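Ticket #4471: structure export looks truncated?
Reporter: QA, pipeline team
Priority: medium

Steps to reproduce: submit the single chain below to the structure queue and open the exported record.
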Amino acid sequence: MNRTVRSIPSEFSVREDGDSHIIEGYFAVFNSNYEIAPGMSESIAPGAFSNTLSNDVRALINHDTTLVLGRTKANTLELRETERGLWGKIYINPNDVDAMNLYERVKRGDVDQCSFGFNIRSQDTDIRDDGSVHWTIKDVELFEVSCCTFPAYEETNIAARAAERDDIKKREAEAWRAKMKERLFNGFKGTDAAEEN
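Actual output as written to the record:
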């Protein structure tokens, strides 16, 4: 799959530690169902980030690559997996006006959601009895985490999942038709054998 973005409600907090201004919280929570669109949902399995935490990941504002809050390579962003999900800590640059403005918005509760950008390396697909499809993301390649004003599934991400769901349903329909055709053929074959006897 191509690089994609997921958005979730988050639990951010801010604090000051000496001269440091810190935003910290969960960028992803394991085993929580996120509705992409009607009939499509996904969740993130524990361990999904374990192979990617050594990557050079950025913390951004609203996925804007010109508004970098922190970076793992620079030790201004810390990320780790807990039993609950992907936890992160961003050390805000007090000389960066955009970063300090975001810090104050998070502090007031005006910004309280997040997104993360990644590639899916491994996932399980569950086609449910009601026709809905649920994906469990098991392994990702993480590129960025973002503090967001209006996080949401991007239309391209919804379209990609919808196309995947439609492909699954098409394959199921083709398999059903092939099975019915085989039963019908075997039925005729059985009738011919009976007539010969």
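Status: closed, not a bug. The export was complete when the record was re-opened. Leaving a note from the reviewer for reference: The first strand starts at residue 4 and ends at 9.
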